[in-house]
Every structure is written in structure tokens, then in C-alpha cells.
Amino acid sequence: MQVPNQKIPTKLKRTYAFLAILAILLGSNCSEIPENTDPVLGIWYKAGTISSTTNNPITKEEWIFNDVYLGRYQVYTNNEVTFYTDFSWEQEDGLYTLKYPGTEKNPQQARMVKMEAQEVLQDEEGNVLALRE
Predict the structure, then answer these.
(1) Which of 9, 30, 116, 127 has CA atoms 20 to 30 A from the CA of 61?
(2) End-to-end CA, the chain
(3) DSSP string, 10-25
(4) Shortest CA distance to 18 belongs to which of 29, 30, 10, 6?
(5) For the stretch 24-35, what's the b/e string if a residue is b when 16 or more beta carbons lie within 10 angstroms of its beta carbon?
(6) d(CA 63, CA 122)
(7) By the 8 A CB rule, do 100 and 73 touch?
(8) Where are the chain's structural domains?
(9) pTM of the model as a whole
(10) Beta strand pairing status for 95-99 and 59-65?
């Protein structure tokens, strides 16, 4: 038994094309990512050892928080990056938890507070973890 060649009518082709375009438009509009406006976004740092001659930090830690709950952690020694890794972060009731997957660095928890017109991340014991840059 042989099936004859059947042509799809032009009107039906246009209908399928219209439906395909409509499906793409509807699908792309439904996938909007909500904007993260958390106040921790930005660059935070902690200066370690300070040079007595130049008064510049010899060691410095830096956290860069971005809006998709990820970030970059870097350690500088004499203005050169000596260690870096990515981290993930989350915030619940004002408590920020930072996790450093793939490293031996332990997770950290901190709260953002304002001290003398400076925003500070404090650990659970009240020690300064980082200052806003």
C-alpha cells in the first residue's frame, strides 16, 4: 500500500507558524527573574595586617555579593590575589549565611549593623567580619 504525497495547505502552515511564535512569546514572558535588592549587595572587605611604613594593608580579605545569591571571596597579600573562591549566600531574618563549596573554609554567619556611619558585617560574637567598601 502506497500513501500518496499530501501537501499541507498554506493556510495551515501559517496557523502552525503563528501558534509556534505565540508559544515562544508566552513562554519567555513567564520566566522573569525577580530583582534582588538586598542591602548586602556590593563589595565588603577586611584589612588584616597593616604595613607600618606605608599604612596600607599587607593582607586583605574581600567579599563581592551579587544579586543571584552568589559571590566571590578573595584574599590579597601585598596587593596580589593569593586565594579566591566563589561562595553562596542566603539571608533569613537578617542573618546572612555564607558557604564556600569546594574549599576547607567553614561557613560563616553575620548580621549587618551600622557603626559610626559605617555599615559592618558582624559575626555571631559581635566581631567585625567585614566593612562596606
Answers:
(1) 116
(2) 78
(3) HHHHHHHHHHHHHHHH
(4) 10
(5) eeeeeeeeeeee
(6) 14
(7) yes
(8) 42-132
(9) 0.70
(10) unpaired
Strands 95-99 and 128-132: unpaired
CA of residue 69 relative to chain centroid, distance: 4
Average pLDDT over the chain reads 85
- Alpha-carbon torsion 111, 115, 119, 120, what sign? negative
Q: What is the pLDDT of residues 53-88, one digit of tens each?
A: 666 667 899 999 999 999 999 999 988 999 999 999
- If you ran DSSP here, which 8-state letter would residue 69 be given? S
Q: 42-132 has which fold?
A: Lipocalin (2.40.128)
Local structure of 26: helix, strand or coil = helix
Residue 112: CB atoms within 10 Å: 19
Work out the number of other CB atoms within 10 angstroms of the CB of residue 61: 17
Show the CA angle centred on residue 125, arms to residues 60 and 103, nearest 5°: 50
Cell numbers found for residue 120: 559592618
List, in order, residues 6 or more apart from 28 with CB less than 8 Å away. none
Q: Which residue has the cell 556590593?
A: 42
**Residues facing 64 on adjacent strands:** 43, 72
Using the 8-state DSSP alphabet, how is residue 88 labeled?
A: E
